[in-house]
Write a structure and sequence with these properties.
By secondary structure, the protein is of the alpha/beta class. The chain is built from eleven helices and nine strands. Strands 1, 2, 3, 4, 5, 6, 7, 8 and 9 form a nine-stranded mixed β-sheet that branches. It is globular and about 55 Å long.
Length: about 300
């Protein structure tokens, strides 16, 4: 079993090295597409590729981001995968709590995909106090664990799928959903909001992408931090775009009292009640079934049985 990761990055120079070094401990291949970074993210990727053989820089392309962009990377490198290998969506600001190699080895063969329990880290009022007293505590070269302490486990989505040569992933698909999803979630830390400067840059990039026609980043306008703060209002991308730049990042501040604190002792609070439910899916037994017609018939039968 090998693990192939797809990483699409843009202006993540403050965290990309930590993410890739961590992922290199469990990935066999990490394929990276830079979506037009201007902050030396791509240069750091190239430097890391010389140090870690697992890291493969694909290309730098400043195209309009779309959710199926990872499918292009998959199509380019799928020839390296064998039946039963795993493919991972690796975001540049995510570091895994559970070792994916150990976790995936325990997934029974009838399951084709795994969802992640995402522990979302926020910039809080406590962080703002620290930042105002000493901005250097949130500098780009400070390890992420020293900057981000407050989180909430309030999101989950697919992160791994088991490779099969029949998989089709076109540009209109954000993720090639198929088969049965494993009912246990793999845990990861999502460091999405790390410092005022990084938050400001993140929002600007995503708003610009939406203006250019991107189908992604809708969560920046209807994001879960507003649920955390019990704020029922919704910010539009147009509103964000016309606000004074210094005001945008302040709207991402969350009260620390509403979150969990990461004491770096290995204990994390999971919130199944806050995460989307994992769909059941239908097992794909294509290795035991000959012919596409038989496979489609089997799929229909299983769907009818599951609906009873």
């Amino acid at each position: 079993m090998k693990i192939h990761a797809i990483c699409v990055v843009k202006d993540e120079s403050d965290i990309v090295a930590q993410t890739l070094k961590s992922a290199a401990q469990w990935c066999d291949h990490i394929y990276i597409l830079d979506n037009g970074s201007t902050d030396r993210t791509w240069e750091k990727v190239l430097d890391l590729a010389r140090e870690y053989q697992q890291i493969t820089p694909y290309k730098q392309d400043n195209c309009v981001f779309y959710n199926g962009l990872r499918g292009e990377v998959f199509q380019h490198y799928r020839f390296k995968a064998a039946e039963g290998d795993w493919w991972c969506r690796l975001d540049a600001d995510e570091i895994y709590i559970d070792d994916p190699r150990i976790f995936l080895a325990k997934v029974p063969h009838e399951y084709q995909a795994v969802w992640a329990a995402s522990f979302q880290y926020y910039f809080t009022d406590k962080d703002l106090e620290r930042y105002q007293q000493k901005p250097s505590l949130y500098a780009n070269d400070v390890p992420i664990e020293q900057k981000c302490h407050y989180y909430l486990n309030n999101w989950s989505e697919p992160r791994f799928f088991r490779y099969d040569k029949r998989i089709v992933w076109d540009r209109n698909q954000g993720w090639p959903h198929f088969g049965a999803f494993y009912p246990v979630r793999i845990r990861l830390k999502h460091y999405q909001y790390r410092s005022p400067q990084q938050i400001q840059r993140r929002v600007n990039i995503r708003c610009e992408a939406r203006v250019k026609g991107s189908d992604g980043f809708l969560h920046e306008a209807q994001s879960n931090w507003e649920v955390v703060t019990n704020n029922s209002s919704r910010m539009s991308f147009d509103a964000l775009r016309i606000q004074p730049p210094e005001e945008v990042w302040k709207k991402r501040i969350v009260k620390a009292s509403q979150l969990n604190y990461d004491a770096h002792n290995g204990n994390y609070v999971m919130r199944e009640d806050l995460m989307p439910k994992i769909p059941s899916g239908i097992p794909i037994l294509i290795n035991k079934t000959r012919g596409l017609k038989k496979y489609k018939l089997l799929k229909k039968i299983l769907r009818v049985l599951l609906l009873k």
